[in-house]
Amino acid sequence: MFNARSLSFVLAASLFLAACDRGPSPKALQGTYHDQTVAVAGVTQALTLELRPDGNALLTHDFHNGKVPSVESGLWEIDGPTVVLTFFERDVVNFNKTKIAGTVVFKIRESGKRLVSTGPEAWDFQRP
Predict the structure, then answer these.
(1) Paired strand residues for 45
(2) H helices within the chain, ranges in order?
(3) Hey, where are the domains in the chain?
(4) Which residues contact 90 (CB under 8 A, 6 or more apart)?
(5) How far apart are CA 36 and CA 78, in angstroms?
(6) Is the domain defined by 24-126 classed in CATH 2.40.128.280?
(7) H-helix or E-strand spanning residue 90
(8) pTM (2 decimals)?
(9) CA 47 to each of CA 97, 98, 124: distance values in angstroms, whole numbers, following the listed order
(10) In 32-69, which positions are buried (b, 16+ CB within 10 angstroms) versus exposed (e)?
(11) What stretch of H or E contains 17?
(12) Which residue(s) pair with 56 in the sheet?
């Protein structure tokens, strides 16, 4: 039979393991991340990813070519050990609606200081 001490130990261990599996809180991931990649034709682009407290996200692509940087908007959420970023675009048929333009999944690294994409983008966002 289990005694009170054994049950207390099992309960404490279970709570500890449950806390470890959660990963960083949304508040810990909020903020601005940066990456620099080589885009098509060898052009370097600076990327800025902003994860806002309200669940909105902005991804800015700056090609340093004198043109206005492009900005994509979407939503972000934590899914276990990953951050899922869903981008939206205006529906050209129904101008008052939006549709999903794409989804990027990031592995959370270094307690949220780095977000590394799992797809072909090869993005490695870091906090300053």
Answers:
(1) 37
(2) 4-22, 26-29
(3) 24-126
(4) 97, 98
(5) 24
(6) yes
(7) strand 82-90
(8) 0.76
(9) 27, 23, 10
(10) ebebeeeeeeeeebebbbbbeeeeebebbebeeeeeee
(11) helix 4-22
(12) 75
Cβ atoms within 10 Å, residue 15? 10
Beta bridge partner(s), residue 104: 85
State the DSSP H helix or E strand holding residue 18, giving kind and residue range, or none if neither. helix 4-22
Longest Cα–Cα distance in the chain: 74
pLDDT tens digits for 66-108?
A: 889 999 999 999 999 999 999 988 766 666 667 888 999 999 9
Residue 45 phi/psi, 5-degree rounding, is -125, 140
Residue in 46, 33, 16, 37 with CA at minimum distance from that of residue 83: 33
Give pLDDT tens digits for 1-47: 445 554 444 444 444 444 455 678 999 999 999 999 886 777 888 99
Instruction: Report which residue type is found at 75.
Output: L
Q: Tell me the backbone φ, ψ of residue 57, rounded to 5 degrees.
A: -140, 150
Which whole-number Å values give the CA distances from 3 to 6, 8, 9, 59, 93, in the listed order? 5, 9, 10, 55, 67
